[in-house]
Amino acid sequence: MTALVVTPSEASLADWRAVFEGATPRLADSAWPAIEASAAAVARIVAEGRAVYGVNTGFGKLANIRIADEDLARLQSNIVLSHAAGVGAPLEAPVVRLMLALKAASLGRGASGVAPGTVRMLEAMLAADLLPLIPEQGSVGASGDLAPLSHMAAAMIGVGEAFLKGERMPAADALARAGLAPLVLGPKEGLALLNGTQFSTACALAGLFRIEGVFQAALVTGALSVEAAKGSIAPFDPRIHALRGHRGQGEVAAALRGLLVGSAIGASHATCEKVQDPYCLRCQPQVMGAVLDLARQAADTLGCEAGGVTDNPLIFADTDEAISGGNFHAEPVAFAADMLAMAVCEIGSISERRTAMLVDPALSGLPAFLTPKPGINSGFMIPQVTAAALVSENKQRAYPASVDSIPTSANQEDHVSMAAHGARRLLAMAENAAQVVGIELLAAAQGCDFHGGLASSPGLEAARRLVRGRVPHLEDDRYFAPDIAAAGEMVKSGALVAAVGVVLPGVVA
User: Fold this and answer.
1) To which H or E segment does residue 287 belong?
2) Is the pLDDT score of 409 beyond 80?
3) Reduced to 3 DSSP states, what percent helix, strand and coil does the chain have, rounded to the nearest 5?
4) Nearest-10 Cα torsion for 459, 219, 333, 75
5) Which end of the chain is less crowded, N or C, counting CB atoms within 10 A of the terminal residue's CB?
6) Is 206 in contact with 20 (CB distance < 8 Å)?
7) pLDDT value at position 1?
8) Cα 181 to the chain's mean position, in Å?
């Protein structure tokens, strides 16, 4: 695994993507003095006997109950155990890695009051590939992602379950096998670990990273569909897009021109009588450009959130103050996740429309359902139905999560963001969209096969060779599922985008 030094508040989205893809992070040396000062401030507050929420009081609606000094350690372990109430399937390992790294970076700002050893434990777990089992469901995205982060903290004290190098086992066994001693939590440490937006943020960032890959693959398949339908390159003329002025629109149009330049297929119908193509071809810059602009806005929000401190109360070591606020409220993440849900929904929606256009001879001029022998063969009839089903599912999932709120904790926590649900759905939506784009890839490659041996552009010919290396031309009907799986993998792995050799616009620098 690649080592990565993370400076809290300065890490880039590219850094977080590297963690998601397997890099092992550790905090920069410059972070530790602030961590030590924050822990020392908490020690002074406790020694002075001041009442501070979560340090020597109960939690939530129970904040008015003072806790005796001899019970402070028990208070911190109790909050972890009682709040570890998640349900559902385990969170994907790459997202858990990102979640732990985000928590370490947040604590590394020196405003949470935890001891350096607590942050070192997060680093050690990441280095050992020891990942807590985090159930996916149970957070409403305010007061922090309490249940998911409690499962993380529980593993740190040797309770619950964890994965050590992918093997599931009791957390205590995983710690022992990794040579790590369970944490003994000091004042505020349990609260600091489970209070924050790191689950929602990790899920949203994971969705962003996967959606970006699907977006770029859809630019390739969209260009290939233009070739299959003998569509026009004129709608991608830079003068059109300069008149409107949206950055993403102009970048997508330029990318499509770059993908199509030098095509013999395009040259073969340059003087045809067709005036305008369907929107799914002609309006790609407008739709996919808007997707790109929206995803970039969401990325800006998530990049800020990833570098922030989102627990409560916050410790200001220079004045020994503990100030209660609401940084744990994940409304920014909820809005960003809703934006990404709309964006990925549209990537799949316009891709499916191109597949539907290609299989319809009245629109494409190609054989019905892209089979040379329609009737005896159904060709691409049902793959288009599959794409339609996935697009419909994504439309249902795209309903904004942030407009919902259910009061919790006896109405103390009376407005919540639902960011966790909004962010968690993004991975499934990205998977659906990847399969839709994979189906379009097969359909567009098949459509190009009917153009009498004419070649497309160099980049798109490389894409066709990639496809035909895994999926042969469909002459007669065959068992279709493996073809779709292979195409979906080309989309998700980045192989399709890499094959074309054209720099495509993206979200993460």
Assistant:
1) helix 284-306
2) no
3) 60, 5, 35
4) -50
5) C
6) yes
7) 66
8) 32
Q: Tell which wins on pLDDT, 142 or 303.
A: 303
Residue 469 has a CB neighbour count (10 Å cut-off) of 11
Q: What is the CATH number of domain 3-196?
A: 1.10.275.10
End-to-end CA distance of the chain: 22
What 3-state class would DSSP assign to 162?
strand
Please report the DSSP string for 83-99 in residue order: H---EEEEPPHHHHHHH
At 73 the pLDDT is 84
The residue with tokens 């035909």 is 468
Catalytic residue among 53, 279, 399, 479: 53
279 is catalytic: no
CA 419 vs CA 102, 197, 331, 345, 424: distances in Å: 16, 9, 7, 18, 8
Predicted pLDDT of residue 390: 98
| β-bridge pairing 24-27 and 3-6 | parallel
Is 0.85 surpassed by the pTM of this model? yes
pLDDT band for 216, please (50, 70, 90 cuts). very high
Domain boundaries, the chain: 3-196, 204-311+327-500
Task: Tell the CATH topology of 204-311+327-500.
Answer: Fumarase C; Chain A, domain 2 (1.20.200)
